[in-house]
Design brief:
The complex is a heterodimer of chains A (380) and B (287).
Chain A lengths: L4 H10 L8 E3 L2 H11 L3 E5 L12 E4 L2 H11 L3 E2 L2 E2 L3 E5 L5 E10 L4 E7 L6 H7 L5 E5 L7 H11 L3 H20 L2 E11 L5 E3 L3 E4 L8 H4 L9 H8 L3 E4 L4 E5 L2 H13 L6 E4 L6 H12 L6 E8 L4 H14 L6 E7 L2 H10 L4 E2 L2 H13 L4
Parallel strand pairs in A: 14-16, 16-17, 17-18
Antiparallel strand pairs in A: 1-6, 2-3, 2-6, 4-5, 7-8, 7-10, 8-9, 10-11, 10-12, 13-15
Chain B lengths: L9 E5 L4 H13 L2 E6 L7 E2 L3 E4 L2 H8 L3 E4 L3 H13 L4 E4 L6 H13 L3 E3 L5 E4 L3 E4 L8 E8 L3 H12 L4 E6 L10 H10 L5 E7 L4 H12 L4 E6 L12 H6 L5 H10 L3 E3 L4 H7 L1
Parallel strand pairs in B: 1-2, 1-5, 2-4, 5-6, 6-7, 10-11, 10-12, 12-13, 13-14
Antiparallel strand pairs in B: 3-4, 8-9, 8-11
Helix pairs in contact in B: 3-4, 6-7, 7-9
């Protein structure tokens, strides 16, 4: 789950990390009032779940409250990577001497949380990592002991020669690690971590991604979810325990398992069609999940044919068959459906489908070809 | 021969009285797997289906049954503890089917299991099957058939798809292993490739990957450097749209976007036959 910058900043503040003040505005007038309160130059920052905000025009300086109103108005009209900006963070502009990067992420290769720090922070950090890897220090953390002070100091000195700044950075890294673990994060990032002319070390930006699997046991973190800033169909799917991503094509796909779902999309494309979505009903499916899946798919007017591709393992195909029957009784289909289903309880599933007037196929390639030809009106 | 499981596998089912655990315990028994016991805290002393003993703890179950393998079907918040309990009780192979295990839990479980000398498969995996001998997990037995091909996959249902197409084409399997798609898992592609290379009955290997990470690229290097047996591969997600990625850390740490194109290229560069569709795996194996 992504959280907004202002939410991540609050988590960082609670952990003791120095973060500049800031307030949220959802209208230009609110932004103006906040800027007036702070006085001086402020930064107006789009709060949206997408990277590259700055490059998309979502982060602007404003020298006066009036200018803050004007830039907020422009930013609140932006759509960044298909996501409309609904809130901005207004924060006093900082005087910056240097910009560093501090990130911690769960790393597949070392199977640990790994810190990555660089004295060359800012928006081009990926370029820095690619062209001058020696400017990045990586440090895996042993989960049994956590980040030790000496480890944090090694990284602190990698960022700053000055011992006071190195100590301040080391303290921030230990606080960041504590916040990372406490929030069930899979990524936490400060970019940039700045030094000011006064010699302070301050986190000017904050990013955090929370592991979805943690949300059941961390209700206070789960409560940070902002559904208004997500695509409505994706919110609907998640509430029904489905994984759904809307795409541009017209073959609606309902599949169990992410790998098979992707392979099904690949095959739709291979046979000349375009998938309308990625939809994984997951394992342990019950009929209700299938009912919800069909509701979401049929809610997309661009869908011209529906393709079920179910290979039962932990998913029982009879559950899926029952779901299809229930859903289509509630809401009769207006587009053709192609059902491919095999695996656990296949005999029962095929009988249920037959008794209710559906036919089912067992071959994936044949089913995909049929769905593509129904959607496009051409032979695949 | 086969890898990891065979006729000597003595299996425990952790979570045997749950919906998924009980269903798949029966399926495994039907397939011929020696299910020697189950574990559900509070139900120790009872019998599952009036024949299989249930224990309160894995330690007790191992002492009484001589189990050497366990399969875990407990809810995600209890899965880390179940894996650690099994490793501490001396189980050699731990297969965790549970989906949704927090990744920070896995950063603790992985080194713990390793120190105890156990092999962990999963979590969030379909398990494995050595056709005709033993199945541990949820791979449907009837889609497999004994033969000379080893299969390792990051996916669940996509594994079934490929195995099913191989079986229909008369290409049997020594062992099919689903390693799971979670960021931290106990057994990776290279572990399985190494075991297949050492297994005298495995003649060739199928590897099924997905977008994300660099495991497939590293496995491809291993194939070129360490393997004599032919390997063919498929990558799912060739048409997956680029996500709305947050943060830079992912790209910095792997130095890669983990796209299907990148992985297919790594396969090709390292002498692995690249299947464009699942069915093409069969064509490539024929060569």
């Amino acid at each position: 789950m992504n959280i907004h910058e202002y939410q991540a900043k609050q988590i960082f503040r609670d952990a003791g990390i120095p973060v500049p003040p800031g307030e949220i505005a959802s209208t230009a007038a609110q932004a103006e009032a906040i800027a007036r309160k702070y006085g001086g130059t402020v930064v107006v920052k789009a709060q949206v779940h997408a990277g590259g905000r700055g490059k998309a025009g979502g982060v602007k300086l404003a020298k006066s409250p009036e200018e803050a109103r004007d830039v907020a108005e422009k930013i609140l009209r932006l759509t960044i990577k298909d996501l409309p900006v609904q809130k901005v963070l207004v924060t006093p502009a900082a005087d910056i001497d240097t910009e560093a990067y501090v990130g911690v992420i769960v790393d597949r290769a070392s199977k640990r949380a790994v810190f990555m720090v660089s004295p060359a922070g800012g928006i081009d950090i990926e370029e820095v990592a690619a062209s001058t890897p020696e400017k990045i220090m990586r440090h895996p953390v042993d989960p049994r002991y956590g980040l030790q002070p000496y480890e944090a100091m090694e990284m602190g000195f990698f960022l700053y020669d000055d011992v006071k700044k190195a100590r301040a950075a080391a303290k921030i890294m230990q606080q960041l690690y504590a916040a990372f673990v406490k929030s069930g994060a899979s990524l936490a990032e400060i970019n940039p971590l700045v030094t000011t002319p006064a010699g302070d070390v301050v986190a000017l930006d904050a990013k955090m991604v929370v592991d979805d699997n943690e949300l059941d046991r961390l209700p206070q973190v789960a409560a940070l979810r902002d559904e208004s800033s997500e695509a409505p169909s994706e919110v609907d799917a998640r509430n029904a325990n489905l994984t759904f991503i809307k795409l541009d094509g017209n073959v609606g796909c309902v599949v169990n398992g992410a790998g098979l779902a992707m392979a099904t999309m690949d095959l739709v494309k291979y046979y000349g069609g375009e998938p309308a979505n990625f939809l994984d009903i997951g394992g342990s499916s019950n009929p209700e999940k299938v009912v919800n899946a069909l509701r979401i798919i049929t809610g997309d007017p661009s869908v011209k044919a529906i393709l079920f591709n179910i290979f039962g393992g932990i998913t029982r195909t009879d559950d899926v068959a029952n779901g299809i029957v229930t859903a289509t009784k509630q809401n009769p289909l207006t587009v053709p459906i192609v059902i491919r289903l095999t695996g656990t309880n296949e005999e029962i599933a095929l009988r249920i489908l037959q008794e209710n007037g559906f036919s089912a196929m067992t071959d994936m390639d044949e089913a995909v070809k049929k769905a593509v030809s129904l959607a496009t009106g051409k032979a695949a | 021969m086969s890898i990891f499981i065979d006729n000597s596998t003595r299996l425990l089912v952790q979570g045997i009285t749950g919906r998924d655990g009980s269903f798949h315990a029966r399926q495994m028994m039907e397939y011929g797997t020696h299910v020697v016991g189950g574990v559900t805290p509070g139900k120790g002393g009872q019998k599952f289906d009036e024949k299989t003993p249930i224990f309160n703890t894995v330690e007790r179950a191992v002492a009484e049954t001589g189990a050497n393998t366990t399969v875990i079907y407990v809810p995600p918040m209890f899965a880390a503890d179940a894996m650690m309990e099994a490793a501490d009780a001396g189980i050699a192979l731990i297969v965790c089917i549970t989906e949704g295990v927090p990744v920070l839990d896995m950063t603790r479980v992985y080194p713990f299991v390793k120190e105890k000398g156990a092999r962990l498969l999963g979590p969030n995996c379909p398990g494995l099957i050595s056709p005709g001998k033993s199945k541990v997990g949820i791979i449907p037995g009837r889609i497999c058939t004994p033969g000379p091909i080893g299969l390792v996959s990051r996916s669940g249902t996509l594994t079934y798809e490929v195995v099913f197409q191989m079986t229909r084409a008369g290409m049997g399997q020594t062992t099919c292993v689903g390693i799971g798609g979670d960021p931290i898992n106990g057994t990776n592609f290279i572990d399985c490739l190494e075991a297949f290379e050492a297994d005298p009955e495995t003649e060739s290997v199928v590897m099924i990957g997905e977008i994300g990470g660099t495991d497939e690229q590293e496995a491809a290097k291993f194939v070129k450097e360490k393997m004599k047996k032919p390997v063919v591969g498929f990558i799912a997600g060739q048409t997956a749209p680029p996500g709305r990625r947050m943060g830079h850390a992912g790209a910095i740490i792997s130095g890669s976007a983990g796209t299907a194109a990148e992985k297919m290229q790594a396969f090709e560069d390292n002498g692995i036959g690249v299947a464009k569709r699942p069915i093409d795996v069969v064509q490539l194996l024929r060569r």
